[in-house]
Amino acid sequence: MSSVKAIFFDYDGVLTRDRTGSLTMNRFVSAQTGIPCERVCRALRRHNRRLNEGKASYAEVWPIVCAELERELPFDLVTRAFESTPLNEEMLQLARDLKRHCAVGIITDNKKERIDYLKQYQRLPELFAPIVVSAEVGCTKADSPIFEVALACAGVDPDESVFIDNTPSNLVAAAALGMKTVYFDDEKNDVAGLARLLAAQFGVNGGRKMFHSPS
Predict the structure, then answer these.
(1) Are 48 and 12 in contact (CB under 8 A)?
(2) Buried/exposed 83-105: b ≥16 CB within 10 Å, e otherwise
(3) DSSP string covering 30-64, please?
(4) N-terminal to C-terminal alpha carbon distance within the chain
(5) In 57-143, at which residue ranges do the beta strands (DSSP E only) sit?
(6) How far is CA 15 from the centre of its chain?
(7) In what order do the strands lie in the sheet with 180-183?
(8) pTM for the complete prediction?
(9) DSSP secondary structure letter of residue 160
(10) Cα separation of 208 and 55, whole Å?
């Protein structure tokens, strides 16, 4: 019998098909405005850390971004960009299968406005609990507190949990706490392989055989 009581997923690049939320935002704003994606990226990138740590909001930084882009862009571009986030349906199905055996949650470096919106738009709390966001905790996955919050919310010890992320450096602090960690290659998107790994290494079986090839 598995000792794992909770599996935590990263959001962007694991539960979604875009590697980062910034990629989703930059690409959408560029497509809607005709502004080169590189310019959009530069204008937003300088605010990214403060947004992820909850020290700024999109409402605060958007006028600054517009000034740098030399365009008066409607703020609803931000929420429409949130809505464009492409979910990884195979991974969501794996999470549903795993939930029959253990808790499934989210730990993400992300903006509060974005995840608050997507909780409703994508109905994330119907599947995932807890959902722990860096902007609410005040620190990112580079440090341990965000993982300690997630473990406390789930009521599990570190060695009773697994954390899955598509960026190796995001696994370091979790592993130092004693959490089991798994790197997920978002380019390969081998969800079936991840399911097999969880079963083989940690005894966590979603109960569904996934025969299809990764896309």
Answers:
(1) no
(2) eebeebebbbebbebbeebbbbb
(3) HHHH---HHHHHHHHHHHHHHHHTTS--HHHHHHH
(4) 31
(5) 103-108, 131-133
(6) 6
(7) 131-133, 103-108, 6-9, 161-165, 180-183
(8) 0.94
(9) G
(10) 42
> Distance between CA 50 and CA 55 in Å, rounded?
5
What SS3 class is residue 181?
A: strand
CA dihedral sign, ordered 199, 214, 100, 146: positive
- How do residues 6-45 score in pLDDT, each as one tens digit? 999 999 999 999 999 999 999 999 999 999 999 999 999 9
- pLDDT tens for 97-111 read 999 999 999 999 999
Tokens (6 digits) for 49: 């850390």
C-alpha to C-alpha distance for 191 and 199, rounded to whole angstroms: 12
- Looking up tokens 């704003």, which residue turns up? 29
Instruction: With beta carbons less than 8 A apart as the criterion, state whether 37 and 27 touch.
Output: yes
Q: How far apart are CA 17 and CA 193, in angstroms?
A: 16
Q: What element of type H or E holds 18?
A: none
